[in-house]
Design a protein that fits this description.
With 531 residues, the protein is α+β, with helices and mostly antiparallel strands. It has 3 domains: 214 residues, no CATH class; 176 residues, no CATH class; 129 residues, Copper Amine Oxidase, Chain A, domain 1. It contains 16 helices and 14 strands. Strands 3-2-1-14-13 form a 5-stranded antiparallel sheet, covered by helices on one side. This is Copper amine oxidase-like N-terminal domain-containing protein. It comes from Paenibacillus elgii. It holds the Pfam family Cu_amine_oxidN1. Keywords: Signal.
Amino acid sequence: MMRLKGKLALLGLCLVLLIPCTAGAQAGSAREAAAELRVRMDALLGEHALLAVFAMQKRYDGAADHEQAAVLLGKNSERLAATLRSTYGEEAAKTFEPLWSSYVEALLNYAQAAAAGEETARTQAANGLEAYDKELALFWARLLPDLGAAGLEEGTKRHTDLMLQAFDAYADKNYAAAYKAMREAYAHAVASADLLAAGMAAQSPDRFDASGMKTRKADLRAALGRLLGEHALTAAFAMQKSIDGASDFDFDQAAAALNENAVDLAAAIASVYGETAGTSFHTAWTSRTRYILDYAKAAASIDESARTIAAGNLEKPQAELAQFFADANPQHGSKPELLNGLNTQIGQMTMALDHSALGEYAAAYERTETAYAQMSPLADLLAQEISDQYPDRFPDAPASVQKTVTMQIGVKELTVNGQTIRMDVSPALREGVVYIPLRVVAEAAGATVTWEAATSTTRLAWGGNQASFPVGSDQAEVNGRKKSAGGAPTVMQDGRVMVPIDILGEATGWKAELGKDDGSIRLTTTVEERF
């Protein structure tokens, strides 16, 4: 078995070079290969989103390093194309890379036009982005037809909308909104990566066992990778703000985004070890973050004494974090390994800032690139140790559970596997059609539910599937394909979305049974337990 140190080094190399390898290299199983594909796509698309936001800001500000920011964004595009090449061959990569690169350039052109105050050029760039959304969706639909063209186009458009929201807010000096949209863009990019990776794995069952993406261990690894990766680049951005002489409002909101990430990371740790442990972790992690920003401020003001103090201060939270995991996981935790990983990663971040302060921008962005890449093996190390500690909670195989939801027409409560939940609206019989409250029922059955006010649409996600239910429509869209049953529309009642039970069953595959005489309703589904 490969030692953890060897795994850490190999994974770091895989992420930086993006060669087609897994944690166990070529000897790994198809399940491990699928989990690695998910991690790789998450890292690449998440990195793209954050780098694009930053490069657009740099272009708008006319920063001295805006070209190097664009170069790093371009390298991300090359690595994404390399991943497609390793899965689909040269032809797919040749089609994708110029299309994606043109899309990225259109984002930068939008920022350039805004900086110059050229509204016509800005509108042209926006129109170009809309066209690229359609072309990219078509590319992915041809590559992954089972995902559905409509859903893919909706996803590409949503990505662009978030990128422009983040930039427009920045240009308007609404920094809170800018960094909020940046975080949303990152989360959306990673969720999209999960969907694409699942589609890619399903097409190559000889290479990928898609079930490897759906285990609680894989979910833990992906969640930690997403949060640690976001920390690395957001910290790099916030540090750069000091060097660039950004306004206090800009710097403070970038730092706020970094702190929000810390809250989310602490919540993930608390979900494993409990609230008290989560609080302890948060204290140490935010100390690390604070000293990183102190280092940046000292470097910007050329205060060598303060920079030395900040560098020394970083040693304490690094040691506290390593000790935290050693105490939380005494049997499987590797304190020296984790401390080395943390110190190596923070070293890349501070060296990136040092190079930037000296105007050595190419070297600065190389260090930033490495600092981000190193977070994935750190996430893998932590996830492996936690799953070794709690193999029943984080198995390396999908765990399924059957859920039975029962309701009754006119009664404001449901039961799920015997547990009663109160509802604020009851199932109803309207013109011979049984309607049920969509959100509470779907959540009880194990789906994730979101509401899109702009289109009055409820969206469900479960087991790698996605469905949308627009109010007023008698159809649902499932994984990009239209579904209908009976012609009755989804409606709004007392502020709640009500859906015909037939269309819910048709869209989700959940088994629906209606009592003939007592108005009872029974839904049965098997769901995968996820982290």
